[in-house]
Amino acid sequence: MTKILIVEDDRHINELIKRNLKLVGYDCDQAYDGKNALEIFRKDKYDLILLDVMLPNSSGFELIPEIKDTPVIFVTAKGELKDKLQGLSLGAEDYLVKPFEMLELIARVGVVLKRYKKAEETFQLGDAMVYLDKRSVYVRGREMDITPREYSLLETLIINKNIALSREKLLDIAWGYDYEGETKTVDVHIQKLRKKLGWESYIKTIVKLGYRLEC
After folding, report:
1. Are 114 and 159 in contact (CB under 8 A)?
2. CA–CA separation, 188 vs 17, rounded Å?
3. pLDDT tens digit string along 93-141?
4. Dmax of the chain from CA atoms?
5. Strands across the sheet with 165-166, in order?
6. pTM over 0.85, yes/no
7. What CATH number is attached to the domain comprising 198?
8. Are residues 104 and 156 part of one domain?
């Protein structure tokens, strides 16, 4: 299982990040200051570190030389251009400014892990096997005819599994356009995916909101 170290001194934010990352299948450890982070880092191996900049004892920028060879995403309130440039020039893979949407953090984590080949390349649920690296789907060994839009929706559900997503959010993430008053297309594609993959019991309808892939 992919292992992530969350280094954030605000305990509420730290816990919120951990809970959401665990929902989508990541194993997480927590640190609340620079010294504590180094102690934990040296005792275990991590696939990714989410690192605040403003930390007690040692700043996130100061920690970078001590955690070489492990990808880092800065998650911080320091949003000025000079701060972003400093973080990226130190070798961070990404720089996310607070406040942020949790779905955006999950997406950025997925991108970095995929870059380092740490993301899961297959996803199996019921009789369906999804090959995320090949963008292909098989049910009981037979390849299914999945349209590009259906696949984008499917991938979004998988990446955000166990998290309820509104129809508007699914439109935005899966197909990249803003909500303009029509969300029936999401319902239509959800029904097609349920039928093709046999996921009637896995893709749950969230009343007055949208959908959640439960696994």
Report:
1. no
2. 32
3. 999 999 999 999 999 999 999 888 776 789 999 999 999 888 999 999 9
4. 56
5. 165-166, 210-213, 203-206
6. no
7. 1.10.10.10
8. no
Where does a domain end: 82, 115, 148?
115
Indicate whether 132 and 77 sit together in one domain.
Answer: no
115, 139, 172: which is the final residue of a domain? Answer: 115
The pLDDT value given to residue 182: 66
Give the residues across from 29 on adjacent strands: 5
8 A C-beta contact, residue 25 and residue 125: no
The packing angle between helices 167-175 and 102-115, to 10°, is: 30
Domain that holds residue 149: 122-213
CB 68 within 8 A of CB 121: no
- 173 Cβ contact partners less than 8 Å away, ≥ 6 residues apart: 103, 107, 156, 160, 165
CA–CA separation, 84 and 94 (whole Å): 9
Number of structural domains found in the chain: 2
